[in-house]
Amino acid sequence: xxxxxxxxxxxxxxxxxxxxxxxxxxxxxxxxxxxxxxxxxxxxxxxxxxxxxxxxxxxxxxxxxxxxxxxxxxxxxxxxxxxxxxxxxxxxxxxxxxxxxxxxxxxxxxxxxxxxxxxxxxxxxxxxxxxxxxxxxxxxxxxxxxxxxxxxxxxxxxxxxxxxxxxxxxxxxxxxxxxxxxxxxxxxxxxxxxxxxxxxxxxxxxxxxxxxxxxxxxxxxxxxxxxxxxxxxxxxxxxxxxxxxxxxxxxxxxxxxxxxxxxxxxxxxxxxxxxxxxxxxxxxxxxxxxxxxxxx
Amino acid sequence: xxxxxxxxxxxxxxxxxxxxxxxxxxxxxxxxxxxxxxxxxxxxxxxxxxxxxxxxxxxxxxxxxxxxxxxxxxxxxxxxxxxxxxxxxxxxxxxxxxxxxxxxxxxxxxxxxxxxxxxxxxxxxxxxxxxxxxxxxxxxxxxxxxxxxxxxxxxxxxxxxxxxxxxxxxxxxxxxxxxxxxxxxxxxxxxxxxxxxxxxxxxxxxxxxxxxxxxxxxxxxxxxxxxxxxxxxxxxxxxxxxxxxxxxxxxxxxxxxxxxxxxxxxxxxxxxxxxxxxxxxxxxxxxxxxxxxxxxxxxxxxxxxxxxxxxxxxxxxxxxxxxxxxxxxxxxxxxxxxxxxxxxxxxxxxxxxxxxxxxxxxxxxxxxxxxxxxxxxxxxxxxxxxxxxxxxxxxxxxxxxxxxxxxxxxxxxxxxxxxxxxxxxxxxxxxxxxxxxxxxxxxxxxxxx
Lengths: 296, 449
What we know:
The complex is a heterodimer of chains A (296) and B (449). Chain A has 296 residues and is of the alpha/beta class. Chain A contains eleven helices and six strands. In chain A, strands 1-6-5-2-3-4 form a six-stranded parallel beta sheet, sandwiched between helices. In chain A, helix 9 (218-231) links the parallel strand 5 (190-196) and strand 6 (234-240). With 449 residues, chain B is of the alpha/beta class. In chain B, 39% of the residues lie in helices and 10% in strands. Chain B is globular, with a radius of gyration of 27 Å. The termini of chain B are far apart.
């Protein structure tokens, strides 16, 4: 709805029809389809002319899935969906028991707008209604125009843990990833991953409603998704803002599916009791010598 | 080029050995005169010359002024090329080896045991929709419920079942394998037909029968399974709507109709810029020789075949003559342009009279102009428009007993827009609409001209 660059409506269709969200993950040598019981639960009804009127039903349906013990993976749709998704997780697991790690080029803490919810305001609403404590809220990849110094001040005062691309520029991705992963582990009981695909560079995700240059690469985004899902008790995941018609190629949908698969592999790793950061020793090294020193 | 120095040489020597120049001039007028009868016949055969991009005139130019030995060597070299390009026992394998030890030799076509339907669902098509009035959701053809077994078709009294055959060989630009999924995910196959006056989804019982499994490395190997599965669909009275896949798929489609209705009982109307009637390809089956194989195996007689929309490089003169001599009726794109779609449609219908009642329509996307369908594996400019194709298909499906329909060679990756996919779905919908009109007795509005 919100951005004006439409077509997130076709995100689910594009991801269903493009490969990538199935099969062996070479990093862990786990095929999530074999390790986990996964189903396609269809689409949840939306009023395409009213975000506000849509979210109650989304919240009920996501809660219905979570209540069965299944991990809801919600394919958007635009980012306003984060609000009913996280609210549903809080409905099921209890307010304050769910933390969020939010990947996005935008801060999405807009407030005081004419509409109470759009793709730029879900974070404010989630925190303001008390579903998630601000101190349990982690953001990664921010770089879009938007938050001014006063807003950053508001975020700091609330205790939000933001990680901008400025931080990545200064310290490098590995350090920032390690910091965000540590914060996620230290968060409350359950973790919701809200993944706006525009956190990636438009080279990888041209099909998105509000692209911002200078984003993450797939080689940066896949390991953090795999590790987050391997290290935390996942309450649910949303992948939002896939707008296939803005991409004349297959890559937005393919990359989105591979990110999802990285997370599914992580969930399967956790289920198998593999330690965080695990990489399969066979796929990581041919093993014919000790080039990297002591064998893993 | 060869003539000038040769003439100069002859002129220089003219005084000394004038008598020798005589035969040389005579040879320039017929360079083949000195050849053996066998070689002369070889270089006089227009079919053979065509293979080398030659005509009698071009040959004269190439050989003029050459010595008899040169001309002989030329003929010998061309004959050697012909021989070398032939199959030679002992040198050439006549079969492509396969690996019988392959663990999953038939894995692609092994049907899931029914006991795996854990919920013990009743037979019949089942909806993938959560909401009563939902549009979209999990994509299926025509938003139809899903059927996966013959029993589902029977229990649901399914009249039309869509089935994908994502075979992607084709002699053209690839990606037909993605057509079934792409068409499932595109609008245009649902709703009331404003021109036909019916909503086929309302009138007909329609199902999505999933995809059939081809062998992506060898079309020959998968065709028996496809043929058997489509024949199974037809055997319970369902009209299969097959979404290919390249035009190779027409072979198992039509063969399955003949298996079901009997030899001599099925007529084919093929919308296609190409005749697909090539001879002499090293492979036994491909999109360029589907019609050849169907006729060669006596699954169709020439008089059972109507080709609509032929144009471009779709068939040379000899191929067209071979086809028309055998009784094939060819209605070219030029005929549609000159006389209009209605007149050509009338011709198709009158041509079908007296022939078999069971009509199979094969619609290759190439028949459409690339403006309406750039995503065609073998696009040919100057095609018929959607404004012509829709009423033609609708009327044929309304006024004949269509027992099957295939839409082939839609190659979605070749069109970054939605246009080709939407065109393809509108063609499928036009036939659904015609079938629904026939069922309800709704009259066809024919054009005046």
